[in-house]
Amino acid sequence: MRQEQTHRQRGFTLLEVLVTTSIFLLILMGIYNVFDTSHATYASGLRKVDVQQNARFAMEEMVKRIRLTGYFWENYFATPLPSPLLQDPIRIATNNTLALYGDLDSNGASNVFLFCFDAASGSVFRKRSLAANINDVASYTCGTTSGVGLGDITLAENITGLQFTYFDANNSPIGATTGSYQLDGQVSGVVPDLAGTPPVERRNVRTIVVTVAAREDVPHQVPQQYTLTSSIRLRNLN
């Protein structure tokens, strides 16, 4: 007589399930750590690019306008020519504020362009006055003011410093290379005095060096600092 063999169906023991689950979780955690590190590196790279592009935009905008210092469309093409001819393009020149007068955007009219740094907001501003507001105190005050400027914009944020340094035709510094200073004693927030205080120092400026410092805040890391510097020769001043 033939005896049938029976086979018992055997499942996983609790120990085997625990070991398998532990191994799976370890693998999953490894994959997550790789993904999290890659994501953090990618996000940090994006922040770096944003901060650098932000600072570069501000620098390019300032360089483009400052290079035209001394150009007055009215002195060449207006009919009749102004009498006396327009002059004194540098109205305010301090360590972190620069006010220029002229046709810096080549639109056929001279305006006041103000470039300044507001430490409270960490922003670099560009203010372009209306032609009727060249003697308005708001045109020389840092920040944007509704109704005063035409094309008032924030050039950059997350900025920790804006430095203007001034040099004469012999590349000798005018004023100071560091610290807080004002050429001819003129400060921002007031209409510059061109009559009572002769613009001796401002008329001697031939090169302006601009330095922009930007900061990138990274969670759980030391903030990284970026510095851009550009030397601008004023082409329209002899």
Descriptive overview:
The chain has 238 residues and is of the alpha+beta class. The chain has one domain (50-233). The protein has three helices and nine strands. It has a five-stranded antiparallel β-sheet, with helices on one face. A four-stranded antiparallel β-sheet has the order 7-6-8-9, covered by helices on one side. The radius of gyration is 31 Å and the shape is elongated. The chain starts with 13 loop residues before the first helix and ends in a 5-residue tail after the last strand.
What is the CA–CA distance across the termini?
Answer: 123 Å
The number of strands is: 9
Query: Percent range for helical residues?
Result: 25-40%
Estimate the strand proportion: 15-25%
Q: Tell me the domain tally.
A: 1
Poorly predicted ranges = none
Roughly how many Å is the radius of gyration? 31 Å
Keywords:
single chain; 238 residues; alpha+beta; 5-stranded antiparallel β-sheet; 4-stranded antiparallel β-sheet
Summarize the structure.
The protein is of the alpha+beta class. It is 26% helix and 25% strand.
Tell me the layout of helices and strands:
Blueprint: H1 14-66, H2 74-77, E1 90-93, E2 97-102, E3 111-118, E4 123-128, E5 153-156, E6 159-167, E7 173-174, H3 200-203, E8 207-216, E9 224-233
